Amino acid sequence: MGSALLSQWIDGPEAITVVDPAGSEVPEGVSLVADRAEIADRRFDCIVAAVKPQLIDDILADYAGNLAPGGYVLSIAAGYSAVRLSKLMGDAPVIRTMPNLPAAIGRGVSGICPGPHATSAHTGHAENFMRRAGSTITVDSEDKLDRVTAVAGSGPGYVFEIARAYAEAAMAQGFDEDEARDMVLGTIGGAIAMASEPSAASLEDLRNSVTSKGGTTAAGLAALNGDGGLSTRLHDTLQAAYDRAVELR
Ligand SMILES: NC(=O)C1=CN([C@@H]2O[C@H](COP(=O)(O)OP(=O)(O)OC[C@H]3O[C@@H](n4cnc5c(N)ncnc54)[C@H](OP(=O)(O)O)[C@@H]3O)[C@@H](O)[C@H]2O)C=CC1
Ligand SMILES: O=C(O)[C@@H]1CCC=N1
Questions:
Q1: Are residues 144 and 177 in the same domain?
Q2: Ligand 2 proximity of 78 Cβ (cutoff 6 Å)
Q3: C-alpha angle 199/104/61, rounded to 5°?
Q4: Per-residue confidence band for 28, with pLDDT thresholds at 50, 70 and 90
Q5: CA-to-CA distance for 215 and 138, rounded, in angstroms?
Q6: Residue bearing the CA closest to ligand 2, atom 1
Q7: Cα 207 to chain centroid, rounded
Q8: Which ligand has the shortest distance to the CA of 109?
Q9: Which has the closest alpha carbon to 1: 53, 39, 43, 45?
Q10: 162 and 143, same structural domain?
Q11: 133: which DSSP letter?
């Protein structure tokens, strides 16, 4: 996720340094170091925590000394609380954000939650930073950010899985893999683009406009969600993701 954001941040005015022990490639103009020891005496206005939440305790405390006076920590980690991170880093100002993977093409949806000691200047900077990767929603509690995580952060995973299963079903109707993928992604993309038009009707009305009485869509929808099974499954999906975020706090 860090490299997805980096790809949208590189055109900005900031000088960016990436610490990556694996030494992955970084875009031109970005400095790469393999070990924090190489930047031990440097100070940064913003430290982005982009490691797995399970690794934060082991990694981030060392970076407390790398924060410039007036700087802040921007964490993209799911669940791990800003309160805990701030304490870990010597009461540093912390803002949590929850982006999602389409940030890689500037189409992300990012939640933002100011945490301990974060000033309005820090929040403004974080909002500006995340807006470069798509749209943003600022929330006023960490609990709400964990719910953004369940809806949007993990969301592309649900969408890719739904599209994959949809394409698999298309293949069972006799289409080859490429045909199935093209038809399914074209259909999903077209429908989403139409629903995203400023003057678009409600999602329910749009669904109804496809559904001729006694026709094929009505038959398909009855099988898809006639018993409310799809609605229940999606409710359970979001709840499970939220519950996991709570476990990671
Ligand atoms: N994937 C997603 O869609 C989203 C992820 N997030 C959050 O982003 C964070 C990263 O997740 P994700 O990108 O999926 O995971 P990845 O494992 O792909 O990325 C984590 C990166 O951190 C690197 N790393 C490991 N140890 C260190 C270290 N000591 N110092 C610096 N870097 C280190 C890893 O290197 P190596 O591979 O060598 O271990 C890896 O490149 C998580 O906190 C996650 O909750 C948030 C929103 C969406
Ligand atoms: O699966 C995860 O934990 C991360 C956070 C949101 C998306 N990916």
A1: no
A2: yes
A3: 125
A4: very high
A5: 43
A6: 154
A7: 27
A8: 1
A9: 53
A10: no
A11: T
| Domain region containing 203 | 155-248
- Compute, in angstroms, the gap from residue 15 CA to the centroid of ligand 1: 21
**Average pLDDT for 187-199:** 98
Residue 171 CA to ligand 1 center (angstroms) comes to 34
Give the ipTM: 0.97
Confidence bin at 23 (pLDDT 50/70/90): confident
Last residue of a domain, one of 111, 131, 149: 149
**Which protein residue has the closest C-alpha to ligand 1 atom 5?**
1
**Ligand 1: distance of its center to the CA of 5 in Å?**
12
Compute the mean pLDDT over every residue in the chain, rounded to the nearest whole number.
97
Q: Which of 51, 112, 113, 148 to mutate to test the pocket of ligand 1 (most atoms within 8 A of CB)?
A: 51
Cα separation values, 156 from 83, 94, 105, 152, Å: 27, 26, 13, 7
Residues 168, 192 share a domain: yes
Regarding whether 22 and 141 lie in a shared domain, the answer is yes
CATH code of 178's domain: 1.10.3730.10
* Same structural domain, 129 and 234: no
- The reply to whether 12 and 118 lie within a common domain is yes
- For the entire predicted model, the pTM comes to 0.96
